[in-house]
Amino acid sequence: MIDTLHHLVERFGLLAVFIGCMAEGESFAILGGFFSHQRFFEPWNAFAVAATGAFLGDTLFFILGRRFSNHKWVRLLRRRPGFSHAFRLVQAHPNLFVLGNRYVYGMRLAGGIAAGLSRIPVPLFLALNGLSALVWAGIFVSLGYVFGLGAEHILGDTLKAHHRLFLGLGIGVAVALATWLLARHIARKQPTD
Asked: Please, what is the Cα angle at 55 between 79 and 76, to 5 degrees?
């Protein structure tokens, strides 16, 4: 079982990081950093995949807002709590909004759609989104790498065995759960628009 998990992480770990980072994937970027520390793949690979996934995910949301604004799916997203607030923010401060949207958990999809519906020029959005994705990937992949260093220091040689897989998965689940709880708490405090 452990060998199978080891093989799956080596073979599909970067793909999982890429797909996870296209969505709201801080935990996937952190796992990418953790597994790169554990030598499943190189740290620069985890960084590149996380940044590319984040950039493409937000660009996709932007395109959905820009090109398919009247589609039923986009109209449903526009009714989500917080969307009108995001739209007002992108209208008032487009550069800051694009740079910071990915850091507000739960708003990445709505924020990307709002940016697509705004007047921000496409080349400017792409440049700011690229810069933001690079910084974001650097922060979260580095956090995962530091988790790996800390776990190795605490657990010592036992981490050298296959326990690192379970530790990495545990960290991912813990980060995902904490993020979900925080987003749920914030959503309860937001007034409905």
From this structure: 15
Place 76 in a pLDDT band, splitting at 50, 70 and 90.
confident
Q: Work out the angle at residue 57's Cα, subtended by the Cα atoms of residues 147 and 14, and round it to the nearest 5 degrees.
A: 45
For the chain, how far is it from start to end, CA to CA, in angstroms? 49
The pTM is what?
A: 0.73
Dist. CA 164–CA 172, nearest whole Å = 12
Tokens of 120: 């921000």
d(C-alpha 127, C-alpha 169), whole Å: 34
Amino acid sitting at position 72 = K
CA distance linking residue 130 with residue 49, whole number of Å = 13
Evaluate whether 102 touches 132 at the Cβ level (below 8 Å): yes
Longest dimension (CA), the chain: 57
